[in-house]
Structures are given as structure tokens and as C-alpha cells.
Design brief:
Layout lengths: L1 H9 L3 H28 L12 H30 L4 H21 L6 E3 L6 E3 L1 H18 L7 H6 L2 H8 L1 H18 L6 H31 L11 H12 L5 H5 L6 H14 L1 H11 L10 H23 L6 H27 L7 H30 L16 H42 L1
Antiparallel strand pairs: 1-2
Length: about 450
């Protein structure tokens, strides 16, 4: 296997490594901004910053980077992994645009007077620097995802065909998302208030891009559950059928936009696509993976990561069906869904590191890298459970600090549980970054010694 991956390196597939590194750096930046939010709540420390909007801008950039930056950059890296680096101009342009976009968005959090708008799916800082960064990032990702497939034989032998098919299927979804955004930009009235304008502008594309993240997660499941002979639990035909079932309903997405973004068809149509166009194929993929849990020769770490990701997925679907109003059941739903994808990508990162021969030889590193995604996922499950309980007792979705009214024991218990889960998830997330830093240190040392 290591010989195969050395041939991949010879083909210049370091482009995939750079994209995946950008995804991790984006996640680190999101974590740093989350720390800034904590400082903003801390006594004494909060007095050092005299711009009250800074924390809301930090929250906006944190959400965009931890959701879209992390997932979309990772999707681009996997596409480069299965199809090779592509043409040099495309590789450099796409990665440069995405990296520059991340830098611009992070920088926009410090621009005094820039207005943060906490709209759904893609919140924004209403300032040219942030908007240019957001556009550059998505343009870079689209340039990488939407290129024609180019089969790289060495890569194909190191990646199960089922995973490669799911990750390649992100290309047509990215094309649909681009068309939806172009039509939304054309059809959204310019005279609307800022928050309503961006809400309508990004409603359709935000829903559509969820399919990219789901395809990445399903491909990661197939990879994590491969046996020691590199065989996936799902064959190429089944993977193709699942991918097609996810994509085909979204073919109508551009047509939902033609009547205008202020029309009820636009809002309800994308909501229904999300409700009925994603869960079915994902559940089928999950059920097809279950027999691999009992198969001999399966990778143990991959099995536990899959179970954790699958549990969060099922919980997310269940909570989504229970949403009845604007309470904390909504963040419980999407934190479960996003946690499921993140657990799969964390475990996939360690699996790819091991296959490339970059994993440290320390036994403690191997054990911790197997446990870390499970710890993070367990924290997310506790966090989500707390949010769901507080939502059941009517806790408001967007109330913070003094605005938050806790008028029942159930809501108090739910929010306390949420806090415990949140701390556990933060510890798990920090562990991911620490374990990756050990790999980076080892690689830098190895490269230095070879010079």
C-alpha cells in the first residue's frame, strides 16, 4: 500500500494534501474565533475590546469556516485525491482563491463598523472584504470540484471504488449549486433589508451544498469500513445508485428559483427537498454498511467511528422530524447532522495518514487517534441531547446570556447537559488538532533530515 501511495506522490497528488491541510487550517481558525467568543463573555477580558460588534462578526466567521470552510475544502481535497491533481493552472488558481478567501474572511472580523448578519445557512459580515473572501473561497472550491474526472490508476488502487464514486458525485451537485446561486442572485430584489436579502440569496444554495457534505460523509463511511484487503462493504453499483438517488431530486432545484426568491415555492421547495431528498439514500447507505460491523478483518477504529457518525446521523434525522417551532430543537438537529459529518472526516483523516505511512509509531498515538473521533462524537451526542430536552421545554433558539429565560426544571437540566456535552466535544476537537500536530512535527523532521 505504501508503494502505491508513493506512486501517487510521484504523480504530484500533493494537491490533495494541500487541500486537506487548508481544511484543517480553516477548522483551526474557526476554533480560534470560538475562543474569541469565550473571551468576549469573560469578566475583565471582555473590557479590552471596545467594539461590541466584534463578537458577532467573530461568530459569523466561525460558523462559515467551521461549516462551509471545513467541509467544502475537505470535499475538494478528496476530489483531488481520487482524480489526481489536474492541470497546474487549475490547481494553483483554485487553491489560491480558496486560501485567500479564508484569509479575507478571518480578517473581516476585525473591521470596525462591519455589520454582522446572522442569517440561516451562510451568515455574512456585510462588508466587501468578507463578501469578496466568501466569493473567492467558493470559486476556488467550485473550480476544483467541477473539473472533468481524470482517472488516476494509482489512486484508484488505494481508494475503494465505492468511496471514489461518492466523492466524484460532488461535482454535479456543485454545478447545480452554482446555477442555483446565479439564479438566486438574479432573482433577489436589491432593495431588501440586508438580513432578508442574504437570507433569500443563500437559502437555495445553502440547502443544495448540504448534499456535497453528505456525499463526502457516505464515501468516508465506505472507506472506514473497508477490510484489511481494502475491500469496501458496498460495491460500485450500490454506491452509484445511492449517489444518483441523492443527486436526482436536486435537478429541479434551479427551477424552484425561477419564480423568484420571495415566492413561497422557493422557500418551501428547498425545505421539502432537504426533508425528503436526503434521508432516504443516507439510511440505505447506513443499512448496507451494517453487515461490515460484524465482518472479520474489518478495521476496528473505523467501525467505532462509523457507529458514532451513524448514531449522530439517525439522531439528527429524528430531531429534524420533531421540529415544531423556533426553539433549541433546531440547533440540536443541525449540530447532530454536522457532528456526524465531522466525526467521519476526523476518522478519515487518521485513516489516510496511516495509509500514507505518516502515522507515528507510538502506541499511544494509534490508540488516541482511534478514540478521538468517538470522544468528539459522544460529546456532540450529549450536547445535542441537552439542546433537544431544553427545546422540548420551550427554550428559545436565539436567546443568550441575560436574554435567556429558563422557566422550567426541564429547560435547566437540558441546558446544563448541553454544557457538559459541549465541553466534551471541545476536548475531543482539541485532541484532533493535537494529534495532527504530532504528525506535522514528525513529517517536518523527516523532510529536514532528508535534505
Amino acid at each position: 500500500m505504501r508503494n502505491q501511495l508513493s506512486r501517487m506522490d510521484g504523480e504530484g497528488n500533493s494537491g490533495a494534501v494541500r487541500w486537506l491541510a487548508l481544511a484543517v487550517v480553516t477548522l483551526v481558525m474557526a476554533g480560534a474565533l470560538a475562543l474569541a467568543l469565550v473571551v468576549g463573555r469573560a469578566p475583565v477580558l471582555s473590557e479590552w475590546i471596545d467594539d461590541p460588534r466584534f463578537f458577532r462578526r467573530a461568530l459569523v466567521v466561525h460558523v462559515v469556516l467551521s461549516l462551509w470552510g471545513w467541509f467544502m475544502a475537505y470535499a475538494a481535497g478528496l476530489r483531488s485525491l481520487v482524480d489526481g491533481p489536474g492541470k497546474r493552472w487549475r490547481r494553483r488558481t483554485s487553491l489560491g482563491l480558496a486560501a485567500g478567501g479564508v484569509a479575507a474572511m478571518v480578517g473581516s472580523s476585525a473591521i470596525r463598523g462591519a455589520e454582522p448578519l446572522l442569517v440561516n445557512y451562510i451568515p455574512v459580515v456585510d462588508h466587501p472584504v468578507f463578501l469578496a473572501g466568501l466569493a473567492a473561497f467558493f470559486a476556488g472550491v467550485a473550480l476544483e470540484l467541477c473539473r472533468p474526472p481524470r482517472i488516476a490508476p494509482a489512486a484508484e488502487r488505494s481508494i475503494p471504488a465505492a468511496s471514489a464514486i461518492a466523492w466524484r458525485a460532488t461535482a454535479p451537485v456543485a454545478v447545480i449549486a452554482f446555477v442555483v446561486f446565479a439564479l438566486s442572485w438574479w432573482k433577489t430584489p436589491r432593495d431588501l433589508a440586508g438580513d432578508l436579502y442574504y437570507e433569500l440569496l443563500f437559502w437555495g444554495v445553502g440547502h443544495t451544498l448540504q448534499v456535497v457534505s453528505v456525499l463526502v460523509m457516505i464515501g468516508a463511511w465506505f472507506y472506514l469500513l473497508r477490510d484489511r484487503r481494502e475491500r469496501s462493504p458496498v460495491g460500485p453499483r450500490a454506491s452509484l445508485a445511492i449517489s444518483a438517488a441523492l443527486i436526482l431530486p436536486w435537478v429541479i432545484a434551479p427551477f424552484l428559483t425561477l419564480s423568484g426568491t420571495t415566492d413561497g415555492t422557493y422557500i418551501r421547495g428547498f425545505t421539502r427537498l432537504m426533508q425528503f431528498g436526503i434521508a432516504g439514500p443516507v439510511v440505505v447507505a447506513l443499512l448496507l454498511c451494517l453487515p461490515a460491523l460484524r465482518a472479520r478483518g474489518a478495521v476496528r477504529a473505523g467501525r467505532w467511528a462509523f457507529v458514532t457518525s451513524a448514531a449522530l446521523t439517525v439522531v439528527g434525522f429524528g430531531l429534524g422530524a420533531m421540529i415544531r417551532g423556533s426553539d433549541t430543537m433546531i440547533p440540536a438537529h443541525y449540530h447532530a447532522s454536522l457532528g456526524a459529518i465531522t466525526v467521519a472526516l476526523m476518522a478519515l483523516s487518521f485513516a489516510l495518514i496511516a495509509v500514507r505511512g505518516w502515522a507515528p509509531e507510538h502506541r499511544w498515538w494509534r490508540r488516541l487517534s482511534a478514540a478521538q473521533p468517538v470522544v468528539f462524537g459522544a460529546g456532540q451526542l450529549i450536547f445535542v441531547a441537552g439542546f433537544a430536552v431544553s427545546g422540548f421545554f420551550g427554550a428559545d433558539r436565539k436567546a443568550y446570556g441575560a436574554d435567556q429565560i429558563i422557566d422550567s426544571t426541564g429547560a435547566f437540566v437540558g441546558l446544563a447537559t448541553m454544557g457538559i456535552g459541549g465541553v466534551t466535544a471541545v476536548v475531543g476537537g482539541a485532541g484532533f488538532l493535537i494529534l495532527l500536530s504530532v504528525v506535522c512535527k514528525q513529517r517536518i523532521t523527516q523532510l529536514w533530515r532528508t535534505r
